[in-house]
Amino acid sequence: MSPVLETDEHKALRAAVAALGTRYGREYLTRVIAAGAHPDELWAEAAKLGYLGVNLPEEYGGGGGGIAELSIVLEELGAAGCPLLMMVVSPAICGTVIARFGTADQKQDWLPALADGTRTMAFGITEPDAGSNSHRITTTARRDGTDWILTGRKVFISGVDIADATLIVGRAEDARTGKLKPCLFIVPRDAPGFERRRIDMELHGAEKQFELTLDDVRLPADALVGDEDAGLLQLFAGLNPERIMTAAFAIGMGRYALSRAVTYARERTVWRDPIGAHQAIAHPLAQAHIDLELARLMMQKAAFLYDSGDDAGAGEAANMAKYAAAEACVKAVDQSVHTLGGNGLTGEFGLASLITASRVARIAPVSREMILNYVSHQTLGLPKSY
């Protein structure tokens, strides 16, 4: 497959998911959020149609595709106004890590359930004092016989209240060097010592954010995912799909906002012609469309590289895709709100809430400044300032 031109199967997938998204739409998600509920109906139907597990191995009930296919699903749901944020976490990060590095028992236990949507898994890496610096993670894992004991804190972890378990990034002592190295553990939601506190957010979404406390959480040996000596490789195997899926989330949101603005600009008449006939309205919307299309191209390239097994190449492209998509999304949302004028701030048109939501992709899962650092150092070979 070319990273530029989509296959007929990809086009068919886009059309099918767009039809599903249109049946639910922004109004459905708005009702769910207002009720403090979760988009369970959409999640279940997307799972039943095979969309949630499209990237997971066929032998475990998945679609046998890759992040290219999964990003299409999220983008099209977002373009319909009803993105599922937990898709970024459960099948993309956790499902990918377990499929690539999990034991046979872990794969059998989790992948079929992640694919059919009956179980979800959250992902815990961010910490209050570490921010984007994964080397400063202080959540530690120490051995106690054959068990592991986890202690630490995590913050801004999505969907922990509905997840059956959380894939926690901790650090364990290397027996040879004494240094701490990253390791990944599956922590069940009801594990003793595993507590959560909801964070009050100005951002209104169906998925809530939590601070986690791990107070001597005892886990069996088989809670460790993969090889404890390959933790860093496993971690980045999950972070690249996370960036690609965040790009899909942002592109979908930008497309949704833009479509609302274009419809409005075609119909809204103040003097003689529709406002969309004026270049001051038309040109910024055209620019927003171009920027979203360019971001999607980089996202497709990143997904192609990742699905081809080129982790290093995917790292650069995934970071660039996430950066480009976030910028394009923010600009598209801003321009869409301005196109509607006062109506852009009303609940009736539903664009104002996206002003806050669109900023998420600039901040999470890694800030745009850290991506610029990555490109400065890794791509351009410039020295580090830190």
What's the quick description here?
This protein is 51% helix and 14% strand. It is α/β, with parallel strands linked by helices and 386 residues long.
Molecular structure report:
The model has no long low-confidence stretch (mean pLDDT 94). Strands 1, 2, 3, 4, 5, 6 and 7 form a 7-stranded mixed β-sheet that branches. The chain has 10 helices and 7 strands. 51% of the residues lie in helices and 14% in strands. The protein is α/β, with parallel strands linked by helices and 386 residues long.
Summarize the SSE layout with pairings.
Elements: H1 8-34, H2 40-48, H3 67-79, H4 86-101, H5 104-115, E1 121-124, E2 140-144, E3 147-158, E4 165-173, E5 180-188, E6 194-198, E7 209-219, H6 231-267, H7 279-307, H8 311-340, H9 352-363, H10 368-379
Shape category: globular
Strand content: 5-15%
Q: Please work out how many helical segments DSSP would assign.
A: 10
Largest sheet: 7 strands, mixed
What distance lies between the first and last C-alpha atoms, to the nearest angstrom?
A: 39 Å
Cα-based radius of gyration, to the nearest Å:
21 Å
Estimated helix fraction = 40-55%
Give the tally of β-strands.
Answer: 7
Summarize the helix and strand pattern as letters.
Answer: HHHHHEEEEEEEHHHHH
Rounded average pLDDT: 94
Structural class: alpha/beta
Low-confidence stretches: none
